[in-house]
Design a protein that fits this description.
Helices cover 36% and strands 20% of the residues. With 344 residues, it is of the alpha/beta class. It folds into two domains: 262 residues, Spore Coat Polysaccharide Biosynthesis Protein SpsA, Chain A (Alpha-Beta Complex); 53 residues. The strands form three sheets. Strands 1, 2, 3, 4, 5, 6, 7, 8, 13 and 14 form a ten-stranded mixed sheet that branches. The chain has a two-stranded antiparallel ribbon with strand order 9-12. Strands 10-11 form a two-stranded antiparallel sheet.
Length: 344
């Protein structure tokens, strides 16, 4: 049986160092039929030029200090054929360059959903595409990660999507998420990621997690072509956060959510936006988009529980005040009062 064709879609915004490291690990993948599409959201740090320069000579800016992660980045400097195009060309459906790496200039900061959708439209226009791997650019992947996800999906096709085992980048032996999350439609809040903070040697009940999660983590999800064609692309109502929750809400249980227990990658978590991490509070920018997107989602799908969502969100404002996170409290409060501004 022929190996399926996979398009990995990465979104970059002022994160060329992370993206280059991710690309280095991707092009060490054991899965041969892989093309990578990098969509750049109008970075101001020269990201596209730096990524193109890396592709021409494969020189890394830096290597992780952790030997476990460093081994994922090859020392050989073998150029990667690439093509750089703009958003209009990418979305025209007429472009079909047979190169392993495509760099797309989105021309503006479109946010997570709209920015990735440019790459998803490009992938859908390629007739040989079987799967899309939506992957965060601040990750490093094991060589067999993609192959193990493909095999997990092959056992359950059709009507299935697949997540992976996501580890903390700074503590690679600790699980950040086992594939996905549960979601509370009463409050609009996601539960803590499944398996979070457990040691990698912990025997997780993957079948049990698969039966309980409501959505896959947007950090890493492998989607068959028919998912994109039947459910559609990510909703561009959201600039950041809640895109994947919205996606799987729209899928309405038509696709089984799987986790490949032997597919491992390492995630820096929130390196661009400042999301809450193992040892860091959320930035004001992260809080702004988190609570704004929560209200958008609840108004779309759970309007009858909106008052409960507001009550819980005001409690979060109080928690930030108690922690001395006054700017965060101010930002969230203004979102809840309908006067959203963000002070990055």
């Amino acid at each position: 049986m022929a190996e399926p064709s996979v398009y990995a879609v990465l979104l970059n915004w002022n994160g060329w160092r992370d993206t280059i490291a991710c690309l280095e690990s991707l092009f060490s993948s054991n899965h041969m039929h892989l093309r990578v599409v990098v969509c750049d959201n109008a970075s101001s740090d020269g990201s596209l030029e730096r990524i193109a320069a890396w592709a021409e000579c494969r020189q890394l800016a830096e290597r992780p200090a952790n030997p476990r992660l460093s081994r994922l980045l090859r020392a050989e400097q073998i150029p990667v054929p690439f093509e750089r195009i703009d958003r209009l060309t990418a979305e025209s459906g007429n472009h079909n360059a047979a190169v392993p790496l495509v760099l797309i200039d989105n021309g503006a900061n479109l946010g997570f959903a709209a920015g990735n959708n440019v790459g998803l439209r490009y992938a859908l226009a390629q007739g040989e595409m079987d799967y899309v791997w939506l992957l965060n650019n601040d990750t490093l992947v094991e060589p067999d990660c993609l192959g193990n996800m493909v095999r997990r999906l092959a056992d359950e096709r059709p009507q299935a999507v697949c997540g992976s085992m996501i580890h903390f980048f700074d503590r690679p032996e600790i699980i950040q998420a086992a594939g996905g999350n549960r979601f509370n439609h009463l409050t609009g809040c996601a539960a803590r990621s499944e398996g979070r903070f457990t040691h990698e040697r912990t025997a997780l009940d993957i079948a049990g997690i698969e039966s309980e999660i409501d959505y896959l983590s947007g950090c890493s999800m492998l989607l068959p072509r028919d998912f994109l064609e039947s459910v559609g692309l990510m909703s561009e109502d959201y600039f950041l956060y809640y895109e994947e929750i919205d996606w799987f809400t729209r899928a309405a249980g038509r696709y089984r959510l799987l986790i490949a227990r032997d597919a491992h990658l390492y995630h820096r978590e929130g390196s661009s936006i400042g999301s809450r991490t193992l040892d860091r509070a959320p930035s004001t920018l992260s809080d702004f988009h988190m609570f704004r997107s929560r209200l958008i989602y609840m108004r779309k799908y759970c309007l009858r529980f909106l008052a409960l969502c507001y009550a819980g969100s005001w409690m979060e404002v109080g928690k930030r005040l108690l922690r001395g996170q006054y700017r965060n409290a101010w930002t969230v409060g203004r979102v809840l009062l309908g006067r959203p501004t963000v002070d990055g």
